[in-house]
User: Fold these one by one.
Assistant:
Number 1:
Amino acid sequence: MRALVQRVSQAAVSVDGETIARIGRGVVVLVGVTHGDAEEQAAWLARKVAGLRIFEDEHGKMNASLLDVEGEALVVSQFTLYADARKGRRPSFVNAAPPEVAEPLVDLFARVLAETGVPVKTGLFGAHMLVQIYNDGPVTILLER
């Protein structure tokens, strides 16, 4: 399971021209699921994101977590995190888990993240989404479990 974490000043997700989720300061988490992933990986990654110290403290050092700054999270499923483009020019997505496996794990990730105390909004699984990200820093970190 992979989580691409981007620190943001704000973010939003739109589907069919309608904004379905919007956050202020916090993180956008693009979540990818592969074959063999289970609840353990989803829960571990969610707790890792909540405690990841990627926000500046009072001394300007990246020493504060999402919980410390009372930030929000926007969780978006992203099967393309498992793209394989080593051969040819068209990526293969055979390493991405099928929707019936991925969707419950992305949902669990969002639920566990919310249980840590982080306000969580989500995209719409399987939909064509427009994700507006104001990457702050920019700070982008890839986590894998």
Number 2:
Amino acid sequence: MSGSLPIRVTPRASREHIERGDGGEWKVFVTAPPVGGQANRAVCELIARRLGVSKSAVSIRTGHTSRTKVLAIEGIGEDEIERRLTEDASSP
């Protein structure tokens, strides 16, 4: 089982976090710069932590050089991805 997650990335943010955008899309903010794959690695690590999966379970399916990306997440379905991110986003 695997799921996908479309996201919009903001590199060089003041802090790392994930939030739901006005249009319902997920926005991922990372402190890493978009050079040499640093921001991409930071995005995968942050998503893995928030979903409770290993770092190796998260990869970039499309958008390696774009701010708009689609992540592939192994071992978890799309409904569960949404549930976990929504719970995390509503936690204080």
